[in-house]
Amino acid sequence: MEKRPLDVCVISDVHLGTFGCHSRELNEYLKSIDPKTIVLNGDIIDIWNFRKNYFPKSHIKVIRTLLKLAANGTEIHYITGNHDEALRRFSGFEMGNIQLENKLVLELNGKKNWFFHGDVFDVSIQQAKFIAKLGGWGYDLLIWINRLINIYLEKRGKEKYSLSKRIKDSVKKAVKFINDFENVAAELAIENGYDYVICGHIHQPQIRSVKNSKGQTIYMNSGDWVENLSALEYSNGKWSLYSHPSTMPDDDDDDDSFDLTISPDSILKHIVHNRPKSA
Fold this sequence. Notes:
Elements: E1 4-11, H1 23-31, E2 33-41, H2 57-71, E3 75-79, E4 94-95, E5 98-101, E6 104-108, E7 111-115, H3 123-127, H4 129-155, H5 163-170, H6 172-191, E8 196-199, E9 206-212, E10 215-221, E11 230-235, E12 238-243, H7 264-274
Parallel strand pairs: 1-2, 2-3, 3-5, 7-8, 8-10
Antiparallel strand pairs: 1-11, 4-5, 6-7, 9-10, 11-12
Helix pairs in contact: 1-2
């Protein structure tokens, strides 16, 4: 299969290690592209909700595919989010073409692009982490229940249904939070002279222009690989949103065997052992 060349690919909110992660679709997508740079914009491995008895092969395969891309020359920037915040103290760690960072600025075609996850704007996380983590567990349970419902609907030949999207769309406070998040990120980017600001965190894929009295910027969000199965792509001097077709994943049906064993614990141990002296 011929791979699509990309200058930059941005992926966020994968949540490896949770029931909601669409790892099979993400692996299909990663194998279909040939990017010069990949920005993993937070919440890639869900350390908050990690269960030692749930890290299926399809999740490990995503990590293996990323490692192969890095080995073949793709530059990978892993930006930490709230669900993988345990990695934040190791910002500056490098392993080959993989760099661990808390934020990133890339200049593309003369334009400044500012990348960060975005949880810094979430008061519930900053002031009440336990409640935020409890909400994360509840969200994972909701996604798992939704998956069972969609299996039933698919067998009946009916259209799939998203409980979480319906809840978000029907709750005015959630809609307001998303709008506030986007506006705050854009206004901060304008103040700092960035042409583009690229976030994750809120699971809402978006590209839109924001203007105020001080200037303008382009706000972008790469979405997630739990509900939207989306990414941001930069090619031929332009940004665009990518949406992957959704299929019903089956993590147990995995006949590709390999020896790689990996978990969030082993990743942390590796980083601690190889952390930069200045960290």
